[in-house]
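re: ur question from earlier - yeah i can do the single chain one, its not a big deal. heres the input i used so u can compare w yours
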Amino acid sequence: MEDLTGRRLVVVTGASSGIGLAAAVQLACRGDRVVLVGRDPARLQAAAERVRETSGERPELFRADFASLDDVRRLAEQLRAAYDRIDVLANNAGAIALQPLSTVDGFEMSIQANHLAPFLLTNLLADRLGRIVVTASGAHRFGALDPDDLNAPLRGYRSLGAYGTSKQANILFTAEAARRWPDISAYSFHPGVVRTRFANDSRLVAFGMRFMPFRSPEKGAETLVWLANQDPARLITGGYYYNRRVRRPYRKAANPQLAARLWAASATAVGIDG
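and the output i got, formated as tokens:
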């Protein structure tokens, strides 16, 4: 691994547990200055203590709920006020809604928390960013994205389909970001099947996890940390990675025209210039 660590500033969303916390710990142990973003203040404080106990560094904390786009806008303002430069933005926050839910902004929960919120945050911080790493998923194979109707999953709702659609959006967003912002390196990755708090929210999901080859959050975070540290010359910007290797996603997540349409629709949805 190329070691590019040198007190870089790394912002990790969804850092209260799971892959985000594991990545924050690994990055802090490498010497990076880590910023944790999470929804629950108590869990965020506990995560900060874990990072401090492991690395000796006390991370900085920001609270935001990605189910509210106003929260995302406030987060962007706070990060811009605090930092002139963000070397790595790890868009890791995510959710799976087991029932059809709409956010206060009127969007299906998975597409907002997993795509529209990080899309908005990244755009609002773009002039400060050096690198973007997006936690996607092999579940994008179940996606059925329609940029003209981002709320389509609410009809005949299936949680895995809605989640897969949001992960399809993650991969398309990353590829389009690389095309639009050549000065910013952008990568998405599949962490593998990771045992995280997702399984705590449903007996059915937890039961299924018992029979699936799952990874620890630490193992799932390895590719995120690798993409955050690897020399960009050795990577493919806009690429989708798994186990530290570039992979071709399913065709539905590798369509440049669909990616461009998604970008335009997402910009309209969150109220920014496309």
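The chain has a mean pLDDT of 92. not sure if urs matches, ping me
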